[in-house]
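[recover] target loaded
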């Protein structure tokens, strides 16, 4: 048997990677690193520990807004890639197995090293990760997944002017209006107009899937320079961060008290949607050197497991929660370096752990078995003859 990470394995990954858009795989990795940054700042306690409106606070929130569009990037990617990919139930089954590997495995590890921390209920829930809502993104994606053939059919069959009207309607209804008419605006409106839960829902993922598929069908990024797209992303981040800073500063000045504010720091806000679209455009067009094919081919497939490992409820409670609160008083430069370095450590550490899962799945030929099983029972269901 060839060693799992030997020369032949690396060459095979490099060959596969060169057939793909390396920029899109790189975006998956960057987006997951951004997710880790969010969790170091949020669950890690940095945002709460920094003195409001201090330089540390402003720096922490600049990092937060720079990373806040990460989830949108993932959902847009699913539509951008999914429109031209073959829809397979086997892909969802494989993803379920990947998630269950950790929703079952992590409690078993905690039960062994920390007796009493895990009960029978937690172990049972691990076998049903989508229903147990261990990870909101997986639960939302699971519900959205079954409608992908309908979304693809819709995007492919509509005329361009019809598709453009649909895209504009989706942006206005599920991004612009919920941002303008939210409960934070003079406390007049009830908020969450169309039950999006701030973007933590299958509905928002479906909107992003359709927008990503629209961008792919009509090559919306064809004339966009990748560096200009990065500039748009940076502008969106600065506008989002600046709006929060100005609102909170004005409240402090006129009311004499710190009151959290900012209506644009949300998955569904127009600036965070545009920031994610800009990153998708940038990485779709970004020239990636050939030497990067191997490391990208190795790390990109494991990016989602970084999320699965460090966000598991037990990891969240016992490892992540409040662990990095001290960063909030380190000073601007040191704070930024420690937050980014810790996020990178989480990313690399979880990737190393996932090598075991990836090796096991390959040895079991799990993907091939699931594809054959789907072919036997559902072969040709969504194939356009």
């Amino acid at each position: 048997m060839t060693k799992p990470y030997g020369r032949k394995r690396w060459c095979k990954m490099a060959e596969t990677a060169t057939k793909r858009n390396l920029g899109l795989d790189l975006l998956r990795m960057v987006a997951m690193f951004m997710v880790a940054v969010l969790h170091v700042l949020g669950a890690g306690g940095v945002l709460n520990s920094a003195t409001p409106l201090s330089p540390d606070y402003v720096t922490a929130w600049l990092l937060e807004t720079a990373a806040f569009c990460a989830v949108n990037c993932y959902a847009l990617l699913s539509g951008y890639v999914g429109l031209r990919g073959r829809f397979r139930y086997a892909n969802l089954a494989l993803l379920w197995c990947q998630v269950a590997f950790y929703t079952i495995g992590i409690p078993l590890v905690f039960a062994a090293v920390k007796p009493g921390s895990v009960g029978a209920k937690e172990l049972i829930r691990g076998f049903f990760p989508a229903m147990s809502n261990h990870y909101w993104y997986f639960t939302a994606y699971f519900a959205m997944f079954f409608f992908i053939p309908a979304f693809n059919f819709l995007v492919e069959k509509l005329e361009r002017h019809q598709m453009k009207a649909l895209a504009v309607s989706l942006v206005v209804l599920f991004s612009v209006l919920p941002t303008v008419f939210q409960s934070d605006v003079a406390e007049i409106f009830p908020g969450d107009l169309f039950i999006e839960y701030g973007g933590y829902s299958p509905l928002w993922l479906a909107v992003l899937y359709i927008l990503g598929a629209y961008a792919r069908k009509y090559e919306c990024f064809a004339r966009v320079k990748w560096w200009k797209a990065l500039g748009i992303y940076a502008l969106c981040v600065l506008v989002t961060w600046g709006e929060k800073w100005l609102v909170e500063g004005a409240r402090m000045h006129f009311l004499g008290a710190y009151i959290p504010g900012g209506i644009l720091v949300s998955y569904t806000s127009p600036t965070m949607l545009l920031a994610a679209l800009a990153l998708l455009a940038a990485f779709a067009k970004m020239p990636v050197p050939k030497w990067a094919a191997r490391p990208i081919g190795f790390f990109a497939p494991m990016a989602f497991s970084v999320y699965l490992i460090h966000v598991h409820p037990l990891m969240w409670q016992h490892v992540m929660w409040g662990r990095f609160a001290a960063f909030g008083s380190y000073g601007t430069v040191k704070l930024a370096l420690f937050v980014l370095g810790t996020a990178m450590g989480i990313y690399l550490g979880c990737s190393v752990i996932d090598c075991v899962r990836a090796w096991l799945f390959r040895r079991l030929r799990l993907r091939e078995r699931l594809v054959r099983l789907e072919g036997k029972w559902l072969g040709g269901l969504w194939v356009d003859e």
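[recover] notes: Confidence is low (pLDDT under 50) at residues 1-5, 9-18.
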